[in-house]
Write a structure and sequence with these properties.
mainly alpha
Length: 291
C-alpha cells in the first residue's frame, strides 16, 4: 500500500505539471494563432516569458505569500529547521548579466532545436508535456547527481551556499552550472522538437515549480520538503521530484504536506489516521466492551 501511495505521489506531480503546461499552452495558442512569428520574434517572446515569469512569481512568493504570517505558516513545508541566512540582494549588474545569459540561451535553443507545429490538441499537448517533464527530470537527476561527486562538486557549491532556501536561490548558480543545467533542460526538446507555444508554457510553469521548490513552501506544485532536505543535507534528492531518486535509491524520505492541492498526500494521511484510530488501545477496549 505504501509503495502504491509513493508511486501515485510522484505521478501526481508529473500530471500536475503536464496539465498546467497544457492549459497555459492553450492560452498562448489562442493569443498567437493569427500571428506569424519569425525567428527573432520567437526568441524575444521565449526570453520575455521566462524572465517576466521568473521575477513576478518569485516576488509574489517572497513579498506576497511569505510576508503574510498566516499564509507562510500554513504553507510552509520545511520540517528540519536551519539557521536563517541573509540572501543575496538584487543588483543592476546581476540582473543585466542574468538577462544576457537568458537571452543568449533562448537564441541558441531556438536556433538549434527542430521546430514542430502541434496545434492545440489537448491529447497531443498533454502527452508532449508528460514526456517532457519525465525526460527533463531524468536528465536533471543525472546531471545533479554528478554535481555532488568530488570531481564536479566545485561547480555546484555556489548554489549550496544556502542551507536555508528562498525562491530566488533557484537562479543562484555559477556560470558553468547554468550552462550545464540549461543543456540538460533542453535535451528533451531536441528529442521531441518544440512548438513555441509549448516552449513558452514550459518556461512559465517550469519557473513556477522551480521557484516554489526553493521557497520552503508547498503552494501548488511542491507537496513536500523534498528539495529543502537536499539543501539541508547536501546529499540525496537529486531529481526535480522524487521519482528517479526512488528508482535509483537516493531518496532522502521527505515529509509530505497533505492538503486540498495535494490529494494523494491528503488521502494517504487520512487512511493512516483512520488505521491508527482503529488499532489504538482505546479503540480496541471500546470494541471489546461493545461486544
Amino acid at each position: 500500500m505504501q509503495k502504491l501511495f509513493n508511486f501515485c505521489f510522484e505521478i501526481e506531480f508529473y500530471l500536475k505539471i503536464a496539465l498546467s503546461c497544457t492549459i497555459v499552452q492553450q492560452i498562448f495558442y489562442w493569443l498567437l494563432y493569427d500571428i506569424d512569428l519569425n525567428f527573432i520574434t520567437q526568441v524575444l517572446l521565449y526570453w520575455l516569458v521566462g524572465s517576466v515569469s521568473f521575477y513576478s512569481i518569485g516576488i509574489l512568493i517572497e513579498k506576497g505569500i511569505k510576508s503574510n504570517d498566516i499564509l507562510r505558516d500554513k504553507l510552509t513545508a520545511r520540517t528540519n529547521k536551519v539557521k536563517n541566512q541573509p540572501f543575496p540582494a538584487f543588483t543592476v549588474k546581476g540582473i543585466i548579466t542574468g538577462e544576457i545569459k537568458a537571452f543568449i540561451s533562448a537564441l541558441i535553443i531556438l536556433y538549434l532545436a527542430p521546430e514542430v507545429h502541434r496545434g492545440n490538441s489537448l491529447i497531443i499537448n498533454i502527452g508532449w508535456f508528460l514526456m517532457r517533464i519525465v525526460a527533463a527530470d531524468f536528465c536533471f537527476y543525472v546531471c545533479h547527481r554528478l554535481f555532488h561527486t568530488r570531481f564536479w562538486q566545485k561547480i555546484h557549491l555556489k548554489h549550496h551556499e544556502f542551507r536555508d532556501t528562498s525562491s530566488f536561490v533557484a537562479g543562484h548558480k555559477s556560470l558553468l552550472e547554468y550552462i550545464i543545467v540549461t543543456i540538460t533542460d533542453i535535451l528533451p526538446i531536441f528529442i521531441f522538437g518544440y512548438d513555441i507555444t509549448q516552449l513558452c508554457a514550459w518556461s512559465l510553469i517550469g519557473n513556477a515549480y522551480n521557484l516554489e521548490g526553493h521557497s520552503s513552501l508547498s503552494i501548488f506544485f511542491i507537496p513536500s520538503d523534498f528539495h529543502d532536505l537536499h539543501h539541508t543535507c547536501f546529499q540525496g534528492n537529486y531529481g526535480i521530484h522524487g521519482f528517479w531518486d526512488r528508482v535509483f535509491n537516493t531518496l532522502n524520505p521527505p515529509t509530505k504536506k497533505p492538503g486540498i492541492m495535494f490529494p494523494v498526500s491528503l488521502i494517504e494521511s487520512r487512511i493512516i489516521k483512520s488505521s491508527i484510530v482503529e488499532t489504538s488501545p482505546t479503540s480496541a477496549t471500546l470494541k471489546s466492551g461493545d461486544s
